[in-house]
Amino acid sequence: MGEIPNLLSIVIFLPLVGAILLLFIKNVRAIRWVALIFTVVDFFISLPLLINFDKTTAAFQFVEKYEWIGPLNINYYLGIDGISILFIFLTTFIGWMCVLVSWKAITFKVKEFMIALLVMQTAMLGVFCALDFVLFYLFWEAMLIPMYLIIGVWGGARRLYSAVKFFLYTLAGSVLLLVGMIALYYAAEGTFEIPLLMIHKYSFTFQIWCFIAFFIAFAIKVPMFPFHTWLPDAHVNAPTAGSVILAGILLKMGTYGLIRFSIPMFPDAAQYFAFPIIVLSLIAIVYGGLLALAQTDMKKLVAYSSVSHMGFVTIGLFLFNKNGIEGGILQMFNHGITTSALFVLIGLIYERTHTREIKNYGWVLKMMPWYAMFFFIFTLASLGFPSTNGFIGEILVLFGAYAVNQWFLLWLLVGIVIGAAYMLYMAERMLFGSNLSGTYEQFKGKITDINLREALVLVCLAIMVFLVGLQPMPFLDFMHESVQHLMNQVNGVDVVAATSLIAH
What we know:
Layout: H1 7-22, H2 28-51, E1 61-69, E2 74-80, H3 84-101, H4 110-129, H5 133-142, H6 144-154, H7 159-187, H8 194-199, H9 204-221, H10 230-237, H11 240-265, H12 267-272, H13 274-293, H14 298-317, H15 322-353, H16 364-367, H17 369-382, H18 389-404, H19 406-432, H20 439-443, H21 452-470, H22 473-490
């Protein structure tokens, strides 16, 4: 499908080509422009995937398959369905923004930083496209190194501690993923093809052990409570682009893994563990919200809010009904937009003031009215205000929860109230609050409002907030068939043969 042959390969590896080209460029200005051009072109090349996508089938589309390591039955195998298509778009959409927000913020080793960004882009896109488990695992592991460097080289005061903590946590999960992958290979009689692994019947005992291994690996990446402790450190010490990648894309890898592997491959184990996972998700929603409410550093506040927001995603996925799963997936996408925008805003004002303490603000509306407008828009989106993207995702999860257990709905509503509290707490004190620390006089006349480069990023993100909020059906239409197919797998309904999952 699609007029461009090997379109997925082009979308995945174009940023890597840009990274290789940067090796031969010395001029810093040229380096920035080359990185921007490659990410922008990659975004536009990815749009035909959306335009030509067939929403009437759960089959994998834009398939590419070539033999790679014949004796082990490992193939270069790519394809996307109605779930992964949204995150390919999100990844290419955010990619060029990361370059723009780093335009002035990164002042040393610019070439190395842009190379790390581009390599990271290739690895993230590969994760969402891979249909061979070994290929998936290679892309999954490839994300570790550039993210480690982005935090460890260009991060804040505790960058090395945060980078090592991120690396060790993720590596621990990757080891469990590798063990589970090898076990699947032998249980499925020698195949790494994900569509075939999905329909193979495994014993209940095997499902239990493999589900535990996969769940821990993906829960660390989400991150779910109690595997979340690496996230605040990584966010606080990462540069703005690093925080945007973490919040916008990397956290989605964990929930994507649950959707692609844990739930369809081990449906009996997924249902067996559904209740404890829902309980952990509810704890994460309330616990993450309360921790966010206690923060005085606005970057830490948004970081802890991610723990709470991703709790909505995981509970939605394990409700095992249409509203819950679709709401969870849409909320993954929404979180990528709104939290990325908040980290961009925090990074922009930090560049001007070199402080992230909420108490040092209160004058933002007076000095930076355009900045204040965007900050308030994304605050409302984050707390799920009607007509913004956060609303429709949350309301679907609420409908799904009500259908399963009304007590789940009560806890979710408590989480929503706490979410409104910490977001409005931050917005009120930053934009409208009285400033007691004397920084108003310190910054008066020295602080400039957002410029055109910064406005371009924020306007594009704001468009997505209202596009999803006011017209959610085009986004939901992409996932309907794939979600129905996932539910059939979980409920034991006979599913089509693996070969018919592939659209040629």
